[in-house]
Amino acid sequence: MILPYYPSANGGCIHGAIGRRCIECRGLGSLGIGASSVTQAQQLIEATRLLTNAPFNVKVFCHAPAQRDAIKEHAWLHHLADLFVVCSA
Q1: What pLDDT, on the 0 to 100 scale, is given for residue 31?
Q2: How far apart are CA 89 and CA 83, in angstroms?
Q3: How far apart are CA 43 and CA 33, in angstroms?
Q4: Which of 33, 29, 68, 84 is nearest to 51 (CA)?
Q5: Any residues with CB less than 8 A from the CB of 9 and at least 6 apart, and which?
Q6: What residues pair up with 30 in beta bridges, in sequence order?
Q7: Which of 31, 55, 75, 82 has its Cβ near the most Cβ atoms within 10 Å?
Q8: pLDDT at 59
Q9: Which residues of the chain have pLDDT under 70?
């Protein structure tokens, strides 16, 4: 049996109620707290615990800020050019 999994947004814009809906469908709800302060993350986790007793995932995604690289950016744009045309982008 495959159970639903609700992957969170990395920026933390998904709140506990959406994760709870996934949990109610017997899936693993997930909270993204990478952009949250410690206090915000704690509040989000506590709010989700008030909504459900079921387990849920807490996802922390963080990385060093990107460094601009004009050569790589141009190469990616060239590589994806046909897809942009297909998608009218």
Answers
A1: 80
A2: 8
A3: 10
A4: 29
A5: 32
A6: 57
A7: 31
A8: 82
A9: 1-20
Other CB atoms within a 10 A radius of the CB of residue 48 amount to 21
Six-digit token string for 36: 């949250």
Residue 33 CB neighbours (<10 A): 21
Residue % of the chain over a pLDDT of 90: 25
Q: What is the DSSP string of 32-77?
A: E-TTS-HHHHHHHHHHHHHH-SS--EEE----PPP---HHHHHHHH
The closest alpha carbon to 30, from 43, 47, 16, belongs to 16
Q: Length of the chain in residues, anyone? A: 89
Tell me, what amino acid is at 37? S
> Contact 3/29 with Cβ under 8 angstroms?
no
